[in-house]
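Sharing in case it's useful to others searching the archive later.

Someone asked me privately for the predicted structure of Geranylgeranyl transferase type-1 subunit beta, so I'm posting the question and my answer publicly. Question first, with the sequence:
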Amino acid sequence: MAKCGFQGSSTVNINIDPANAHYKCGHLAMTYTGLCILLILGDDLSRVNRKALIEGVKALQTPEGNFSATLSGCESDMRFVYCAACISYILNDWSGFNVNKATDYILKSISYDNGIAQCPELESHGGTTFCALATLSLTGQLDKLSKDQREGLKRWLVFRQIDGFQGRPNKPVDTCYSFWVGASLKMLDTLQLSNYVQNRQYVFETQDSVVGGFSKWPDTCTDPMHTYLGLAGLSLIGKQMVVYQSPFTVRSTKFFKAKVAMCPLLLKERSNHQHRDILFTHLLYGYGTVAVRMRYGYGMFAYSTVAVRHGYSTDTVRVRYRLRTIRYNFGTVR
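And my answer, the predicted structure tokens:
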């Protein structure tokens, strides 16, 4: 059962040469994504082979404490530690997740500047900092951070804001970090130290009012990933810009409330994790290897209802669209 888990596509189930059979195995991120999609659709997970999935998770943890994505030979880092933690939490079974080893791995990945990297001795990054903090929160190990580590991490995160947020020092701001960094600050009860107005203004500057969506930078093409993470970031700072509701359908929420012991992540009163809402309503797949331009691979975890209100006039929309088209055609897009 070590090969068990969800795959990214049914195409891998085609008949292949036996010599390549080892590629037919579960992928940790796809297992997490698959479970979340089932929950969104109102499934009760009764058809899921829980034991097999947990055995699949267990087989992917390395001696260092992190996790590989697959058994077929793959990188192992903080992204998949987070995915494994979420799978274990959703299934309410930690028998395949060595919490102590994973916690030790996370603590060793804290860099000299107090941010958290993909692996020990690498550069701090906003996305992997989120993965690490979320894992510590899910496993009840957030208090393992010392006071100095916590305060240093808060400082590092706060200093990632320029107007929007950047993922690393000396990098341009990017819509997606409104969530990655914002959620990390939220978990540390420090989001209020950021500038909500500038963050919101930057995210809306990346919005295309003609075709819809948000982009990485202003005046560039929108995409689902940045649209989703832009909305997720806006939901953290609240106000009247984004109306946030549970990502789970009413049906699934009611179902799991009826089955109290099955899925504690849906039951706020039974959760000891302060920021359970942002742990499960946003990230499905951290910094992957199989998606957008082989750089970032995020599973899309949609809100059940997200309403975005903006006040552009018709004339403003026309001007913005024309400027965007001119800049794109002449190669001046950032």
